[in-house]
Write a structure and sequence with these properties.
The protein is an alpha+beta fold and about 425 residues long. It has one domain: Outer membrane efflux proteins (OEP), CATH 1.20.1600. Helices cover about 65% and strands about 15% of the residues. The chain contains 9 helices and 4 strands; from the N terminus they run αααββααααββαα. It has a 4-stranded antiparallel sheet with strand order 1-2-3-4, with no helix packed on it. α4 runs antiparallel to α9. It is elongated. The chain starts with a helix and ends in a 10-residue tail after the last helix.
Length: about 425
Amino acid sequence: MMAVLAAMSGKACYAESISEVLAGALAASDKLKIPQADLESAEQHVKEAWGGWYPSLYVSADTGHDRTDVPEGPRVHRAAHQDYVSVTQTLWDFGASNALIDRAKTIRAQAEITVEATRQSVILECAAAYVNLIRSYDVSDSALKADANAKKRIGFQNAKVAVGAAASLPVLQAKSQIAGTEARSLRARGALQEAQNRFRTNCASEPEKRQALVWPRFSANTMPPSLDDAIDAATSGGTQGKLAALSIELGQETASFFTAKAFGPLVQARLESIHRDNISGIAGYEREQTAKIVLTFPFNLGFTAVNTINAAESDLRGQALRAAQTRKQVEETVRNSWKNLEILRENAEALHNQAEMSAQMLDLTRKRGSQSVIELVATETAFANAASDAMSADADVLIAAYTLLWATGSLATSMIE
């Protein structure tokens, strides 16, 4: 499928610089640091969720003054002190703790995939900026040379014609030719400045000079063999497809947690030790120790637990619908990316064919030798523009290929060298 990409990979050499640029962009990207921080938070929440199965220690101590009124006797005042220590271990909560742990793990998995999705976005943005910068350098250089060549051959240094001034047809033709080359050169310089600014933003570094930039090498073997394969890769193994599947899992685990919490009793083992000194009118030291199984089952008589379960089930249905919508959007993105790549590939082939024909026309024009200077300049300019357009089309194909890999969720720095 990828004839143009294969041709580009054959003519390009290793570009060590783009690997360094991508590594620097990934290291400095604030866009990537945000989901990385979310992942660290999710890791801590997984550890926190396991706390439901760890024993809990409760300690309290109070010191004060105890006064006891004895009938037909003197009032007794004593210094009083009491210590309380308990250790409680959950034995079973009918799946609530396990559902909470599973939910935390799913959120962590979502965070991991979000990190990978963001990483691929940073790679795409930086790689596209890198390729676009090379393209802009070459287009600007070609336009500048074409403009200089036209002015040198024709003999005019600008295309301005005074208002109301009489000018012959050849002069107007010459100046019109120069006006065209000047306009193209100005547009190319503006596009180069935009490409440099985009490189600064997306690659987190200053743009290199053209001599330090080499076209990235790209292997057509990294591309999906067919559109169906690309869609399958995106919906099943791609980052967006995985996030959609995990969102359903998260909804199921949330529903399980609320069901167990609302309708399941809590069974705990508890050890208690109480030390009293002059408490409740009892003089002297007293110690009490107990070991027991505690069953608790709080239930709201307004039956709000039913509302909780209904809400969780509605949330789950919503997650399933959103996941299905996400898969449709992912498929649409892949289809559009695939078609865009096909169109740009055909466009590049057509422009290369045009450049070849322009080269032959220029060769014939020079061999004929009887043409005017304006005709020669027009032919030379047409060839320069056609060659520049063909090179620019190759850059579009390369960026479109990266975009398709990103859409399938498989773009990696190893594919861009």
